[in-house]
Amino acid sequence: xxxxxxxxxxxxxxxxxxxxxxxxxxxxxxxxxxxxxxxxxxxxxxxxxxxxxxxxxxxxxxxxxxxxxxxxxxxxxxxxxxxxxxxxxxxxxxxxxxxxxxxxxxxxxxxxxxxxxxxxxxxxxxxxxxxxxxxxxxxxxxxxxxxxxxxxxxxxxxxxxxxxxxxxxxxxxxxxxxxxxxxxxxxxxxxxxxxxxxxxxxxxxxxxxxxxxxxxxxxxxxxxxxxxxxxxxxxxxxxxxxx
Length: 243
Hints:
By secondary structure, the protein is α+β, with helices and mostly antiparallel strands. It has helices at about 5-35, 45-75, 75-80, 100-115, 165-170, and strands spanning about 85-90, 95, 135-140, 145-160, 175-190, 200-210, 220, 240. Strands 1, 2, 3, 4, 5, 6, 7 and 8 form an eight-stranded mixed beta sheet that branches. The longest helix has about 30 residues, at about 5-35. The protein starts with a helix and ends with a strand.
């Protein structure tokens, strides 16, 4: 019969072997990560890379802040310049392609005509949930591309299509636009251009809440707005495709 002392020695030997196996497995896993294409240097083990990625993240946050400020001030030409040549924007069920074509049509024509893009407070009773208001920026290890999610709370609108005398009079006074509030998140993809500057390659307005509300009103009501349904050129301000 084994003594208590011999049983303890056996137990210690087993634990020692288990620890050695665990160490070997960890080393193997580290080697696999290091050998994975595109991840030759694990981020967690490279302080200089972590610092570089953090600086890129800060640059992208500044770019987005500049984007929102330009939209709020109606500086649409500045907004257009932030996009890559082959950029894509998804808005209201429409897909606007290419900076010099669809993207320019959206920001130079459709947004100004509908008084769209100005920042607004969230409509009372329609506020985004806490998790929906969280932002995030994820920069690729090669620092050439990135994705981000940012919340938005903006005014959206469209000109009245009716030809009634009241609508005509409203247009003469610059008020022939139906406006409402929308809240949601921007889903953005970025990449660097040949000069190393960050550009927006894809931007999607992911609307999560919408209400008939204007700043100063005490209450808001739900509103239903149809997606864009007519492509360009049948609609001079329309999208290139439908999402």
